[in-house]
Design a protein that fits this description.
Helices cover 70% and strands 0% of the residues. By secondary structure, it is mainly alpha-helical.
Amino acid sequence: MDFSTPTLDLIKSGLKNAQTVNADQVLYNRIKESGDSKEQLKKAAEEFEAIFVTKMLSQMDKTVDRDNGLFGKETPYVDTFKSIVYQQMGHDIASNPRTSLGFAQQIYRQMEKYVGG
């Protein structure tokens, strides 16, 4: 079976959307399984900060000069690898009290009065 370029692009787009939905579902499940409402709020705030830091790292990466870079020529594989690394770094930064930017704590403090225990 021979696929045309538009067909392959459509398949790739569908797979990317499916991965996004699956990642969102995993995130939702992680929050939902974290315990009572206050624990869920704490986890949601932490995940928000992790997403923010991940986006920040991704945007910062776009400003880097690519000539003679560590990963060599930019390819979709390198982009995928970097996105995984940035996601992990974002999560690690947000979940550590010494490296957190403090967004999660501020969100939790402002929202905890609206959440039952």
